[in-house]
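Repro:
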Amino acid sequence: MKKHLKTYPAPRFWHINIKEKEFTIRPRPGPHPISFCIPLGIILRDMLKYALTLSEVKKILSERKIMVDGKVRTDYKFPVGLMDVIYIRPSDEYYRVLPHPVKVLSLIKIPPEDASFKLVRIIGKRTVKGGHIQLNFHDGRCHVVKLDDPFNHDVNYKIFDVMKIKIPEGDVCEYIPLEKDSLIVITGGENIGKYGKILELPKSRKPMQLAKILLEGNERTVTLKYAFPIGKESPAIVISGVV
C-alpha cells in the first residue's frame, strides 16, 4: 500500500496548489474513500487557515483540540468525508461536510444544536446471527436492528435510505427513506451539490438506475446512487453557510 501522494494526481477539489509542492497529505484508510474525502491536515491548514505549516497542524492535533463526529482526532491524515461534523474547541465552531457544485466537498458552519447528529446512508444490508438485520452505512458504521420475530416483522429499510444518528453514540433517532417527495442533495455527477425533490423512483434499487427529480424548477434525472435524502417537508440539516 502506498504511503505517499503527489499533488498532481490528488483530488482536484482539495485546497492545494499543485505547483507549490511535489507531495501532499495522503489520507489513511478509513471510513471514506480517498476520492471523496479530505485529510484533516488539509482542512486545518488550507481550508480553515488555523495553521500555516504541517508542523503547526500536528501541534494543534496533539493538544486534542479537534473533534470529528464527537471523537478527538490526533491524526492529520484522518479522512473526513460526507456528513462528518468537525468541532474546533478553541473557537467553539462546528462544521459539517456537504457536497458543493464547485468545491465537490465543502464545510458548512452549523450551530451547536445541529452538531449532535449526522445523516448516514444505508449502503448495505444483511441478516446476522439470530435473524437480526445489520445495516451498513456510508461512513463505515453499522447498526443492528433487533427483531423479536425474524420471520414476521414490518422492518423495511432499503438501500440508499438514510438514518439520522446521534454522535458519537451512534444511536438512531430518525429514519429518512428515499421515496417520492423526499428532499435530496446530489452527491455526484454534473449536478453535485444541488438540492432537489424526488418525483419518481425506479422499480429497483440498483445504483445506476435513474430517478426523476425536480431540480431548480425543472424535471431532471439523477443516478440513484447520487440521490441522498435529507428530509421530507424540510431539510434535517443546515444547508447554508459554505466555508
